[in-house]
C-alpha cells in the first residue's frame, strides 16, 4: 500500500518542525528515513500514523487522504512500532500483542481462539513465544520492542511505520527485525540511525535535516553535509544472522 507525503508541514508549540516534506513509500518496499537527532524523523512518522495533525500538506495511504479516513480504517491499514511504549500498567505480553487485533473487532467483543493463535504465532516470529504470560513492564527494552513488532504483525496491516525499531536491540535482534520486515514484504517506512544498516536493508533512503527532506539517496557527500562527518570506506566485520542458534 503506497504512502505519499506531499508538502507535509507539522508545527508543534508554534515551532515549525517538519517543513514541506515530500516522500513516497512504494508498495512492498522498505524505505529508510535517516537524519541527525532532532531533524524531525519522529515527528514526520507520527503525522503519518495520525498521532499529529499536519499544519499543511497531504498524506495519502493507498490513495486515500489519511485525515478523511475513519479512524478504525486508518488503524487497520497502518501498524506502528513507536518509541513510546504502551502505558506500563499490569499488562501481560499477550495483552499488549492482542491490542493489535482491536481495529478488526467490534467494541468490547471477546478474545477468540483465532486472536490467541495469531498472537502466539507472531510472538514466535519475534522469538518471544515463551514470554506470552510475562508482565510487559518487567521486560528489557529490547524485548519490549519485539513485543511491539509482534503487535504490529497481528494487526495484519499493509503499511508499517517504525520509529527507530532497532534502538534497544542487540546486533542479532537488530538483524532479525530488519530481515523480518523485508521478508514480510510489507510496505514500511523506518526511521533508522545506523547508516550502514539503512544502506543494506532499505530499497530507498530519505535524508532529513532541519525538518526538511534534503536528499533521497545516501551518498558520502550527503553524509558530510548533513551529519558533519566524513564517510571513510573501511574493511569491517559484516554481521550475518545465523540460520540456527549457536
Ligand atoms: N511537542 C513538542 N513541542 C515542541 N517541539 C517539539 C515537540 N516534540 C518535538 N519537538 C522538537 O522537534 C524537533 C524534531 O524532533 P523529532 O523527535 O521529530 O526528531 P528526530 O529526528 O526523530 O530526532 P531523534 O533522532 O533524536 O529521535 C526537535 O527539535 C524536538 O525538540
From TrEMBL:
Entries under PROSITE patterns matching the protein: ABC_TRANSPORTER_1 (PS00211), ABC_TRANSPORTER_2 (PS50893)
GO molecular function terms listed in the Swiss-Prot or TrEMBL record: ATP binding; ATP hydrolysis activity
Domain (ABC transporter) ranges: 3-235
Metal-binding as UniProt keyword: no
InterPro entries listed in its UniProt record: AAA+_ATPase (IPR003593), ABC_transporter-like_ATP-bd (IPR003439), ABC_transporter-like_CS (IPR017871), P-loop_NTPase (IPR027417)
Superkingdom of the source species: Bacteria
Record keywords, A-Z: ATP-binding, Nucleotide-binding, Transport
Protein name: ABC transporter ATP-binding protein
Higher taxonomy: Bacteria, Bacillati, Actinomycetota, Actinomycetes, Streptosporangiales
Amino acid at each position: 500500500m503506497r504512502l505519499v507525503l506531499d508538502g507535509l508541514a507539522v508545527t508543534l508549540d508554534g515551532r515549525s518542525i517538519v517543513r514541506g516534506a515530500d516522500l513516497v513509500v512504494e508498495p512492498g518496499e522498505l524505505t529508510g528515513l535517516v537524519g541527525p537527532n532532532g531533524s524531525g524523523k519522529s515527528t514526520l512518522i507520527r503525522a503519518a500514523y495520525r498521532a499529529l495533525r499536519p499544519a499543511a500538506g497531504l498524506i495519502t495511504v493507498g490513495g486515500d487522504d489519511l485525515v478523511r479516513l475513519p479512524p478504525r480504517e486508518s488503524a487497520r491499514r497502518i501498524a506502528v512500532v513507536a518509541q513510546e511504549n504502551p502505558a506500563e500498567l499490569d499488562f501481560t505480553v499477550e495483552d499488549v500483542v492482542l491490542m493489535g487485533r482491536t481495529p478488526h473487532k467490534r467494541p468490547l467483543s471477546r478474545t477468540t481462539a483465532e486472536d490467541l493463535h495469531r498472537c502466539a504465532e507472531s510472538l514466535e516470529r519475534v522469538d518471544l513465544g515463551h514470554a506470552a504470560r510475562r508482565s510487559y513492564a518487567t521486560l528489557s527494552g529490547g524485548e519490549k520492542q519485539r513485543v511491539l513488532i509482534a503487535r504490529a504483525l497481528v494487526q495484519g496491516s499493509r503499511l508499517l511505520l517504525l520509529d527507530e525499531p532497532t534502538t534497544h536491540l542487540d546486533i542479532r535482534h537488530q538483524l532479525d527485525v530488519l530481515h523480518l520486515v523485508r521478508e514480510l514484504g510489507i510496505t514500511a517506512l523506518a526511521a533508522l540511525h545506523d547508516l550502514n544498516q539503512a544502506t543494506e536493508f532499505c530499497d530507498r533512503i530519505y535524508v532529513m535535516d532541519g525538518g526538511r527532506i534534503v536528499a533521497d539517496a545516501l551518498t558520502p557527500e550527503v553524509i558530510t553535509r548533513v551529519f558533519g562527518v566524513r564517510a571513510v570506506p573501511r574493511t569491517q566485520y559484516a554481521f550475518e544472522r545465523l540460520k540456527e542458534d549457536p
